[in-house]
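hey so u asked for the seq, here:
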Amino acid sequence: MFYILFVPLTAITWILFFEYLPRLFGPQMKRLIIPGRQSTKTSKKEYLLSAMNLLVFTGFGALLDFLKSAELTKFYFEIEFTWTSLLYLPASLFLSLFIHDLFFYLSHRFLHTAFMHKYIHVHHHQSHTINAWATFSFHPIEGCIQISIVCWLPLLLPIHPVIHGIFTVFMLFMSVYGHSGYELRAKKAPIFNAFNTSFHHAQHHQYGNYNFGIYLNFWDRLFKSNHATYEDGYKHLREHINGSKGVE
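ran it, structure tokens below
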């Protein structure tokens, strides 16, 4: 039984990592805080819902352990030292990220439909300003939707457990990073603007019906769901963090 512990422990590790980021890397981390977007105090509800969803993650980890032991997944364990086999390893990781990116965008838009938002997704959006504990502060039904990808992937495509583990770690890292209130990539080259930022999701919590993606900004651009101020706002944030000028 591996995933029953791996999934929730990875999630709580990233929460604690971002929670204690200033203690780990010093007070200079304060300059990376997104002004006005990071909450100063975690609410009791955020702690409670996070704990509930860590149990949900445990349940899906147990489900994946069962599927794996029953040989119902497409996990494979032997790697042939051929070009095809070796190239498929990174290709399967990028394919997994692409599948999840599309799944997250579509499921997130679904959660913003009138009924789902009123009864399910509203709990997550009660965190108007964000912190690491707000990441998984959502209704358990939403928790089931979001974490189900760890089970869907090995049912859909052949994947090595190590690649699946890397995907899970990265997915949970990006989830917490997007809610951390820190912008860690303000010095990235403009070519990487194709990827989403922590500021992107901070705006989602501020404005609601915008900025739905997780990894790529492609879907928000394609469906015109970026907030009108995202690009300029991120530009000003970069200048603020890099010492050029303040945020407008």
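The two ends are 50 Å apart (CA to CA). Residues 3-186 form one domain.
lmk if thats what u needed
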